[in-house]
Each structure stands twice: as structure tokens, then as C-alpha cells.
Amino acid sequence: MKKLSIISLLLCLCLTVTMVLSACGDNENTSKSSPDEPATQAAESDGIDYMALVNKTHPLPDDWEEKLETVHMTNSVGDDVEVEKKAYDAYLELKAALEAEDIHVDLDSARRSVADQQRIMDEFTEEYGADYAAKTVAKPGYSEHHTGLALDLYLIIDGKDVVENEDMIQYTDIWAKIHSKLADYGFILRYLDGEEHITGYGYEPWHIRYIDNVDTAKEITSKGTTFEEYLGAYTGGDVSIDYGNSEIYTEDELKDAVIQIKCKFAFWGDVDLKSIKYAGDEAVTDENLKWMNELAPDANYTQVVEFLMDFHTPKDVGEMTFNADSDYTDYQWWLARTADGGWEVVSFGY
Ligand SMILES: [Zn+2]
Predict the structure, then answer these.
(1) Residue 161: which CATH number?
(2) Distance between Cα 324 and ligand 1 center (Å)
(3) What is the pLDDT of residue 132?
(4) Ligand 1 center to residue 152 CA distance, Å?
(5) How many whole angstroms from 184 Cα to the centroid of ligand 1?
(6) 205: CA distance to ligand 1 center in Å?
(7) How high is the pLDDT of residue 145?
(8) Ligand 1 center–CA 190 separation, angstroms
(9) Residue 237 has what pLDDT?
(10) pLDDT at position 236, please?
(11) Are residues 135 and 60 in the same domain?
């Protein structure tokens, strides 16, 4: 996302949701870091862990911001961008290698502090309410951009800046060439196509992550795996999913809906997901569709679907309202479809 006001940022987010139908409902939310931060922050001797996983379920490590050393640069459109020091050096090498092949990129955004993200969250909460803010803005502390190691590139095509996501995504050949060089400089592509249920984000060809190790970057890239899977942090792979025998929806349509459920479920901490099953065509009624539209009056849903989930809660349920160490069966998930075909989780519970 580029230099946008809160309102246009919102519109842009909606566009992104439309564009990547199978992506998790809430998108990576970006903004600029405040210009009055010091140019370089004090470093501590033990430094940051370049392999740290920060995603929607793994927060930024506590002492990260004290240890982080950054540099500031000004991009071709005149914005200040803050980047972790080594990541920036590696980026400059990558950029030079790309320029040798007449591919031109620049940095849209990189580091964003937790405080900045909190400020955005507060603004959204004030303006649109807590529910909407939680759905739309990345939770402070849980964005990879906090690390300073996540870089959003933009393209310069025939001397013109191409900065909007929906424009950039058209240049598939150019992104393929860029992606083929990332690992040589210690970067990986972070939000892979078709892995939204694991990463929590739709495909973003521009979002790259520095991991400070060329061999590891090459291994991850050649395996075509997500960072989550490489680190063993994704455990949702062995869940049984039963798509039933719908005469209304194809299995692909139901798969898209299940991805949305998994995206939400990813926030449930250590709850152990056992199974998800299609509740049947009998739940696809006008009455239930009407109920979905009553729950979200502005959404104009056109279709409804229900799934049933079995799961087991951990010994410590924290702030969740579940009983500890208990089996839950046939827990209901209701999703509805917008005019553009994307599914949204509208309600869950008993
Ligand atoms: Zn990004």
C-alpha cells in the first residue's frame, strides 16, 4: 500500500481482498514509519535473530526493537523508508543484479514500528469501531514489517513508478525474474500463491523477507515451501476435511471457504484442530442467507454455507471462553459470499 490516507487505504484493502479471493480476509496493512525516528538505532551485542518468525500468530520478539539497527533511504517517489542494516545492503546488491537485466525496482515500505501499527489500529478503532479495526488492520506486534527484514518492492517500468498492488501484480514475467534472484542475496518470497491458509496472507509478489543466509534461502526457495513450514511452525496439515456431496457448490468453492475458516482459526493459539466438514446443502437456505445479511447489513451476500468443526482446547485457554482441555464437536462456522465470489466468515459458535 502506498502513501494513502486512512480512507483510501481502506478502499485499497478492499480491492486487494477482491483480487485475491482465496486469501485470508484481513490483509497486511502498511503505512509509513514516522519521520522523526532516529536515523540509526542503538545496537546490542547479541543482535537480532534473522530467522525469527513473525506472523499473525507469532509476535515480534520482546527485545527486538532495542536490538534492531536500521538505515533510512529515500525512494524514487520521495518517501522515507527504514530498513534493517544488513537487509538493506543485501537489497542494494539484489537491485544492482536486477538492473543488469534492465529490471528496475525500489522500496515501497519496509520497517514499521509496533507503535506506528498501534496508532493505525487506534485510528481505525476510533473511526470504524473495534470489530472492523481488528478485521482490517494487522494486530500491533504481529506484522513481519516490524522486523525491518520484510521489504515491499515496487516496479519502475519504462521510467514510471508502478506502485499500486493491482497494477504491479500484472507484471508476472518481471516478478518471476525478480523471484529467481532473491535467494542469491539471502531473501525469500514470503507470501506464496496458494499458501494463504498457512501464511495468513494472499499472494504478494512484492513482499520479500531477508533471512541473512543464502544457503537456507536457496533451500526454502527450491522446496517451494513457506517459511512457516520450513520452521516447523505450521501444524494444520493433518486435519481431516470432508467436503461432502454438495449439489450446490463445487469442491473448489468449498475449499476456498475452508481456507477462510483456517485463517480465522490460526488465531486460536494452541487449540488443536481435528476436523472440518461441510454441513450439507440443507443449510443453504434463503433464511440463512437473510440471517448472514442481517449480521452484516452492508455486505450484500449472495450465498451462504455452513461447516462443522471438531477441536480440542489446550490446558491453558488464556482469554478464550472455551473450557480447558476439552473436546468440542460440531462447532458451527457460517460463511457468506459477496458479489465478487469471495467467502467471508460471518459467524461461528454454537
Ligand atoms: Zn509487505
Answers:
(1) 3.30.1380.10
(2) 36
(3) 75
(4) 5
(5) 20
(6) 9
(7) 95
(8) 9
(9) 61
(10) 66
(11) yes
The DSSP string of 110-137 is ----HHHHHHHHHHHHHHH-HHHHHHHS
Taking the centre of ligand 1 as the mean of its atom positions, its distance from the CA of residue 207, in whole angstroms, is 5
Shared domain check, 277 and 325: yes
Res 23: pLDDT: 53
Domain identity same for 158 and 51 = yes
Domains in the chain: how many in total?
Answer: 2
> Quick one: 251 and 137 in the same domain?
no
Q: Is 318 left (phi over 0), alpha (psi -120 to 50) or beta?
A: left
Question: Do 32 and 87 fall within a single domain?
Answer: yes
288 Cα–ligand 1 center, Å: 37
Q: Which residues contact 325 (CB under 8 A, 6 or more apart)?
A: 312, 313, 314, 315
Residues within 5 A (CB) of ion ligand 1: 152, 207
Q: Is the domain of 167 the same as that of 251?
A: no
Cα 206 from Cα 160, distance rounded (Å)? 17
Residue where a domain terminates, one of 200, 230, 260: 230
To the nearest 10°, the Cα dihedral for 307, 308, 312, 314? 40
CA 145/CA 68 separation, integer angstroms? 12
130 alpha carbon to ligand 1 midpoint, in Å? 23
Per DSSP, the three-state class of 282 is helix
Query: How many Å lie between the centroid of ligand 1 and the Cα of residue 334?
Result: 30
pLDDT given for residue 320 in this prediction: 82
> Residue 265: inside a domain, yes or no?
yes
Ligand 1 center from residue 179 Cα (angstroms)? 15
Ligand 1 mean position, distance from CA 144 (Å): 8
Same domain, 98 and 169: yes
pTM of the model as a whole: 0.68
Residue among 238, 237, 229 nearest 190 (CA): 229
Around Cβ 251, how many Cβ atoms within 10 Å? 14
CA of 255 to the centre of ligand 1 (A): 26
198 SS3 class: helix
Which of the residues in the chain have pLDDT under 50? 1-22, 26-45
Element (H, E) at 73: strand 70-74
Domain ranges, residue 151: 6-230
